[in-house]
Amino acid sequence: MILVVAATERELASVKGADTLLCGIGPVEAAISTASALAQARPDAVLHVGIAGAPELEPGSVVIGAEALYCDIVDAASTLPRVERASPSAELVEAARRALPDAHVLPIATCGRVGGGSACEVEAMEGFSVLRAAELAGVPAVEVRTISNRPEDADRGLWRIDDALGRLAEIVPPLLEELRAWAS
Predict the structure, then answer these.
(1) Residue 168 in contact with residue 62, Cβ under 8 Å?
(2) Is 73 within 8 Å of 169 (Cβ atoms)?
């Protein structure tokens, strides 16, 4: 079984024939929802999908997460122990690359607010939480996003959410097909 996780119903709308989890928006909701779901059932893999912002990539671009960075706690001067990075399954990243050969493979920042990952190439709000919950549960996971906006665009009328969701609907079926082949 592949569990597909997304923050919103619109991001999950294109998922057919797979178990889904609506994890909610933001790192806290995503962590709680994903950890709770993984405590109840153990899927073969977690596929986290959604839209994201990127200052340099064109809207509609596809990104496979090379790692998830939790920007809200990154502080180079701090010596306190903390977990600020979560790694996807290398096998799932390769499966995603087979399904989406034109996708970018980049780190994806997780931030509690838009623009909080300004030093990163891609930012979203849930990836670290979903990948970390899967990591702690021992379930392989990968994050795949389509770009909807530039985080610095304060005018949300410039964001191309519908286009990014349309692109997400195009990529989810071949991605699920490849992940099912990997799991069997």
Answers:
(1) no
(2) no
Q: Are 121 and 56 in contact (CB under 8 A)?
A: yes
**Domains of the chain by residue range:** 2-177
With a cut of 90, say whether residue 104 has pLDDT above it. Answer: yes
**pTM listed for this prediction:** 0.91
The pLDDT of residue 113 is: 60
CATH code for residues 2-177: 3.40.50.1580
Helix, strand, coil proportions of the chain in percent (round to 5)?
Answer: 35, 25, 40
Using an 8 Å Cβ cutoff, are 96 and 144 in contact? yes
Residues 6 or more apart in contact with residue 78 via CB below 8 angstroms: none
Q: Are 152 and 120 in contact (CB under 8 A)?
A: no
At 146 the three-state DSSP class reads strand
**What is the residue-averaged pLDDT of the chain?**
89
